[in-house]
Amino acid sequence: METQHAATGKPAWVERVLMRCPGQCAVCRAWSTARVCADCLLRYARPAPRCWTCAARLPPELSGRREAKCGRCLREPPPLDRTVAALDYSFPWDGLLQHYKFHQALDLRETLLERLQQALSIAQVEPPDWLLPVPLAPERLKERGYNQSYELARALARRRKLACDAHLLLRVRSTTQQARLPLQERGHNVKQAFAVEPGRLADLRGSHVAVLDDVMTSGATVFEIARVLRQAGAAHVEAWVVARTPEGGSDSIRR
């Protein structure tokens, strides 16, 4: 049975066509010069209090409290110094991110980038020495034609005048797609899947690094990357992500 779009009630195949229409909001289909209109941003993109180290949502009463952490991170501190997430990976951002990631909807990049820019400004992040996109396996890069994280990272680097390098961090082992695995198996799946370019170790020594990814769920991918970067000598490692999957949230894209 054909599913319907949650905001408009139109069949999903109609929505896939309308997603490409210029001049319309990608969420509610109102006429708009922006890909997501101001009303939808107000409704679906409000900042939320988040855990300092994993960006999980925190209770509203912790809003404004600096370095507040969730219970999980207090019990088992992750290898990240900080995580900044712009949005929840839920309607409408889950659908927009899937469209951007799998259907070459690069026209959505600016909207996603603006949300991340806003989150970074609110978080008052320090500029890192390196901004590194999560690398794709060669076969996945060939299949998609682009690395969605690198497209965001290089645009963000231009805006913030940061050093972005897509070759400093390498994916050295192909892995099963994280979305196909239960959460408890994802850490093992990406273990030893990443490495630093051997000739560039000196560039990382004592550095502040931000790792950029589109979606974070279990944290397995960015946690493994953080371990690799620390072993290579990085002094401070953060994750910057567009969307963070809420507890019990969407299974469509999980990393």
CATH class of the largest domain: Alpha Beta
Number of E-state strands: 6
Percent strand equals 5-15%
Number of domains: 2
* Quaternary structure state of the chains depicted: single chain
**CATH architecture field of the largest domain:** 3-Layer(aba) Sandwich
Family: Belongs to the ComF/GntX family.
Protein name: Phosphoribosyltransferase domain-containing protein
Domain Phosphoribosyltransferase: 193-249
InterPro entries: ComF/GntX_DNA_util-trans (IPR051910), PRTase-like (IPR029057), PRTase_dom (IPR000836)
Topology overview:
Elements: H1 12-18, H2 38-44, H3 71-75, E1 82-88, H4 93-102, H5 109-123, E2 130-133, H6 138-144, H7 148-160, E3 169-171, H8 183-190, E4 194-196, H9 201-204, E5 208-216, H10 220-231, E6 236-244
Parallel strand pairs: 1-6, 2-5, 5-6
Antiparallel strand pairs: 3-4
Helix pairs in contact: 5-7, 8-10
Keywords:
255 residues; alpha/beta; Rossmann fold; 2 domains; four-stranded parallel β-sheet; two-stranded antiparallel sheet; 10 helices; globular; disordered C terminus
Descriptive report:
The protein has ten helices and six strands. It has helices at residues 12-18, 38-44, 71-75, 93-102, 109-123, 138-144, 148-160, 183-190, 201-204, 220-231; strands at residues 82-88, 130-133, 169-171, 194-196, 208-216, 236-244. Strands 1-6-5-2 form a four-stranded parallel beta sheet, with helices on both faces. A two-stranded antiparallel ribbon has the order 3-4. β5, α10 (220-231) and β6 form a beta-alpha-beta unit. The longest helix is centred in the middle third of the chain and has 15 residues, at 109-123. The chain is globular.
